Amino acid sequence: AQANGNEAAQVAIDVYVSSIRHWLGGGMVELGGLDAIAFTGGIGENSPATRAAVVAGLTDLGIEIDSAANKSDATGERRIEAARSPVAIWIIPTNEEVIVARQTRNLLALAS
């Protein structure tokens, strides 16, 4: 929807990115810095634009994405930070269906 110019979809993505950046900043303060950022799940794995938006403007904090690696069609677990970035940026694939199946199995076991 966003790619088709849907304004509401763009607002939703902007709010989503802002929320991630908010929690990322809070985490940096609480932890005294970052060693890595991990993108996972559907959007984290499949949206180079969202990943780029999350880290945009953070080079002064040592967080920089490699644009080519971010846009690559590579699959699997991989790093996408720029060579000079001291903060690693990972894409970690998930299998959400397996997680849901395990949780369902555990709930059914409790019910019996």
Describe this structure in words.
- The protein is mostly helical and 112 residues long.
- It has one domain: ATPase, nucleotide binding domain (Nucleotidyltransferase, domain 5), CATH 3.30.420.40.
- It is built from five helices and three strands.
- Strands 1-3-2 form a three-stranded mixed β-sheet.
- Helix 1 crosses helix 3.
- The longest helix is centred in the N-terminal third of the chain and has 25 residues.
- It is globular, with a radius of gyration of 17 Å.
- The mean pLDDT is 92.
Give a short summary of the structure:
With 112 residues, this protein is mainly alpha-helical.
What is the fold's blueprint, element by element?
Layout (H helix, E strand, L loop, with lengths): L6 H25 L4 E5 H6 L1 H8 L11 H5 L6 E2 L8 E5 L3 H16 L1
Parallel strand pairs: 1-3
Antiparallel strand pairs: 2-3
Helix pairs in contact: 1-3
Uncertain spans, ≥5 residues at pLDDT below 50? none
User: What is the CA–CA distance across the termini?
Assistant: 43 Å
What structural category arises from helix and sheet content? mainly alpha
Order of helices and strands: HEHHHEEH
Count of separate structural domains? 1
CATH superfamily: ATPase, nucleotide binding domain
Side by side, the strands of the main sheet go: 1-3-2
Based on CA atoms alone, the radius of gyration comes out at 17 Å
Annotated CATH topology? Nucleotidyltransferase, domain 5
Provide a count of the helices. Answer: 5
Name the descriptors.
112 residues, mainly alpha, Nucleotidyltransferase, domain 5, 3-stranded mixed β-sheet
